[in-house]
């Protein structure tokens, strides 16, 4: 019955979703929900995932605030770290029920029918499950339902530790990369990220494995280094190596399938550019500012960021574009894609790997640092001349690992604008400062944090309160594992500095 319900949900949703050029060919009658195909279920899962990580709540009021890309224009509670429990519950439920369950249902259909290429399609769905669990475990600080989460026979699944989840994800990626066979088909039009390109799913899996490995490298360097070596081994299929290969979810104009941030901005202006972000871009004459933000109304080149974390009513702009710069269409346009993992991030990961002296990287840390900035400029539609001029302002500085992390981290942060959740997590991991002055880039909320356990930035999201009653014993064990309290101030397991 659970599987049937998810088939029903997937088929009903896909009658309204049109996210690729040929997507309408996949639509089915809502009167025939049981005929949902695995491709439709994959598309539903991808849509739900992109919406969950890219919407005004989890991206706008969590990720974009915690990465300090945006400030609040009037309702400031979230920028001062007071969460809305209903939003938190919805995020958790969406990842499990509306993404992972859709993928399980797609895999079940493929396993039953065994049409040519079914191994590829099961593997692609499994890679997307890895991506989803990766978000879950990092957002919630480590322990989550994982090994028992999708077992219909277990009503109260245990919480695996963060390290157990990570090792499981790496093992799964190893297996799926080995399974993917470019001689056989993938999902075709049902794949809204790579259009059925099996080779690209290999590159994505290897690139995701790099992200997971670097996230854990200070906590488990042995396992991380082993995973990095596998991703760098060209026999495993390579990495994302151009902007054209970036993993993106592409929205289309018009509700309900335009970028969810665009939809939010149609009725109200709750977000402005953040003062720390704007001032850092201005500090080094970064032309990406004019791409990421709109100038003040009535000007062509005046940009002002809103003070971060103001108390409501304490000088807030109320979204007045004559007072504060608002986000541009780069992030909030109807067709602005939701980035899952892009080429610039891959280059910055390679730069860090080289800076750490790990074998297997072709090129130096400086070369990959430069390539990461260049990729970001290209994605922003800026010229090579602008890139070269900017690079002269922010040359790579290494010398020691901490300085290298400051240089790489600060530029990675700028390049990841729009990817609030991942940028926040990398902010926590790299803990970078201005590499040239040693000054702090981030600030505490001007109005003070309303969470007694958080001063500068939350380290995790608290578990939904319903878990305490629905899965009490396992919830209690998970809370003990993150420090004894379900707190936003408990560091994730991989943050050992």
Automatic annotation (TrEMBL):
Chain segments annotated as coiled-coil in the UniProt record: none
- Transmembrane segment boundaries: none
Q: Which InterPro entries match?
A: SusD-like_2, TPR-like_helical_dom_sf
Give the UniProt keywords, A-Z.
Lipoprotein
> What SUPFAM superfamilies does its record include?
TPR-like (SSF48452)
The record ties this protein, via Gene3D superfamilies, to: 1.25.40.390
> Could you tell me what this protein is called?
SusD/RagB family nutrient-binding outer membrane lipoprotein
What organism is recorded for this protein? Answer: Pontibacter saemangeumensis
């Amino acid at each position: 019955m659970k599987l049937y319900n998810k088939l029903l949900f997937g088929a009903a949703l896909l009658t309204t979703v049109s996210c690729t050029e040929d997507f309408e060919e996949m639509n089915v009658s809502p009167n025939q929900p049981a005929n949902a195909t695995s491709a439709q279920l994959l598309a539903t899962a991808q849509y739900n995932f992109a919406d969950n990580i890219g919407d005004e709540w989890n991206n706008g009021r969590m990720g974009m605030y915690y990465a300090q890309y945006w400030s609040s224009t009037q309702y400031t509670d979230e920028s001062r770290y007071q969460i809305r429990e209903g939003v938190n519950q919805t995020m958790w439920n969406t990842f499990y029920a509306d993404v992972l369950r859709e993928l399980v249902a797609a895999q079940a259909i493929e396993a039953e029918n065994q049409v040519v290429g079914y191994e590829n399609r099961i593997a692609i769905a499994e890679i997307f499950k890895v991506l989803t669990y990766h978000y879950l475990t990092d957002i919630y600080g480590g322990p989550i339902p994982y090994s028992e989460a999708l077992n219909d026979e277990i009503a109260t699944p245990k919480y695996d530790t963060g390290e157990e989840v990570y090792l499981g994800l790496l093992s799964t990626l190893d297996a799926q990369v080995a399974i993917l066979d470019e001689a056989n088909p993938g999902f075709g039009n049902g794949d809204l990220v790579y259009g059925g390109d099996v080779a690209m799913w290999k590159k994505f899996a290897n690139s995701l494995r790099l992200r997971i490995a670097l996230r854990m490298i200070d906590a488990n360097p042995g396992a991380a280094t082993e995973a990095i070596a596998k991703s760098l081994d060209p026999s495993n299929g390579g990495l994302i190596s151009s902007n054209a290969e970036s993993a993106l979810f592409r929205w289309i104009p018009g509700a309900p399938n335009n970028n969810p941030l665009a939809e939010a901005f149609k009725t109200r202006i709750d977000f402005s550019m953040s003062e720390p972000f704007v001032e850092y871009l201005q500090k080094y004459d970064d032309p990406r500012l004019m791409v990421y933000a709109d100038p003040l109304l009535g000007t062509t080149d005046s940009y002002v960021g809103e003070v971060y974390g103001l108390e409501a009513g304490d000088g807030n702009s109320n979204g007045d574009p004559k007072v504060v710069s608002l986000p541009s269409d780069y992030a909030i346009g109807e067709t602005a894609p939701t980035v899952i993992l892009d080429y610039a991030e891959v280059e910055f990961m390679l730069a860090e790997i080289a800076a750490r002296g790990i074998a297997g990287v072709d090129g130096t840390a400086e070369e990959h640092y430069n390539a990461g900035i260049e990729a970001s400029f290209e994605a922003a539609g800026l010229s090579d001349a602008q890139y070269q001029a900017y690079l002269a302002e922010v040359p790579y500085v290494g010398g020691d690992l901490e300085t290298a992390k400051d240089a790489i981290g600060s530029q990675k942060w700028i390049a990841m604008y729009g990817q609030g959740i991942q940028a926040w997590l990398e902010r926590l991991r790299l803990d970078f400062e201005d590499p040239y002055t040693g000054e702090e880039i981030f600030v505490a909320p001007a109005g003070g944090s309303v969470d007694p356990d958080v001063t500068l930035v939350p380290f995790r999201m608290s578990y939904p309160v319903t878990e305490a009653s629905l899965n009490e014993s396992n919830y209690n064990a998970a809370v003990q594992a993150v420090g004894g309290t379900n707190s936003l101030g408990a560091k994730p397991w991989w943050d050992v500095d």
